[in-house]
């Protein structure tokens, strides 16, 4: 029976004894397709280490734009987004988007190579299969804390287990239609970020406007402050205003 896994089937090599990872035929084919699509390191996108539907009309739109293998994304999620969401998640319509570049042949270019694109796809799959932000944002946070290891199977499994996600669901999502399904989600996400003029990981947008940017290990464009309580205060104020308009 064909193994449909999209992920490496061996643990990542130790630094002392480097060895190329082994992939299933399907995963190798997807990676080859990604390479042929033209993955490269694009300096126009900034990552600092290199420079259930409910009544969402009353909720405040909060969106973060990231790259899965970017330390600024790690810091942004860990120091600002997750602590804020822990206090106001019920008032927020949360969305996770990614930064990259689409190609003419239906591919996607990711700044840190094809492994980052696969990390992005897995995080989008988590959001698709488990739409509760407490689950998929937690999973994303877990991955980005060890971003250098993405997409090691051991890391994916550890983070999936921690947040009650079935590993096979993620793998099936990423592998569906020989990878075309996940790539389609990534293309849509990257297109959204591009159309919004977002090119820096991590960019936090609140109510349709840039609220804060983590760039090069520093905060910028954070009118109103870059602490979780500052973001919480803004969300609560917007929520009260929006709820007043809808009542």
UniProtKB/TrEMBL annotation:
Main location: secreted
Coiled coil start-end: none
Ranges that cross the membrane: none
Bias (Polar residues): 1-13
GO-annotated cellular components: extracellular region
MF terms (GO), sorted A to Z: oxidoreductase activity, acting on a sulfur group of donors, disulfide as acceptor
Annotated segments matching region Disordered: 1-22
Keyword tags: Glycoprotein, Secreted, Signal
Protein name as annotated: GILT-domain-containing protein
Naturally occurring in which organism (per UniProt): Bimuria novae-zelandiae CBS 107.79
């Amino acid at each position: 029976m064909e193994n449909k896994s999209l992920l490496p089937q061996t643990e990542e090599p130790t630094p002392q004894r480097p060895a190329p990872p082994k992939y299933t035929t399907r995963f190798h084919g997807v990676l080859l397709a990604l390479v042929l699509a033209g993955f490269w390191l694009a300096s126009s996108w900034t990552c600092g280490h290199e420079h259930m539907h409910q009544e969402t009309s009353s909720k405040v739109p909060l969106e973060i734009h990231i790259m899965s293998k970017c330390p600024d994304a790690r810091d942004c999620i860990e120091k600002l987004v997750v602590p804020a969401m822990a206090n106001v998640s019920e008032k927020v319509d949360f969305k996770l988007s990614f930064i990259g570049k689409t190609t003419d042949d239906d591919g996607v270019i990711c700044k840190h190579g094809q492994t980052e694109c696969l990390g992005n796809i897995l995080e989008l799959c988590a959001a698709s299969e488990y739409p509760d932000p407490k689950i998929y944002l937690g999973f994303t946070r877990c991955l980005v804390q060890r971003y250098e290891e993405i997409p090691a199977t051991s890391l994916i499994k550890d983070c999936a287990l921690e947040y009650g996600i079935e590993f096979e669901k993620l793998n099936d999502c990423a592998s569906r239609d020989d990878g075309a399904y996940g790539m389609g989600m990534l293309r849509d996400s990257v297109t959204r970020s591009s159309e919004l003029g977002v090119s820096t990981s991590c960019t936090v947008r609140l109510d349709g406007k840039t609220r804060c940017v983590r760039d090069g290990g520093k905060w910028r464009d954070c009118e109103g402050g870059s602490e979780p309580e500052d973001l919480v205060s803004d969300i609560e104020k917007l929520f009260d205003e929006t709820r007043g308009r809808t009542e």
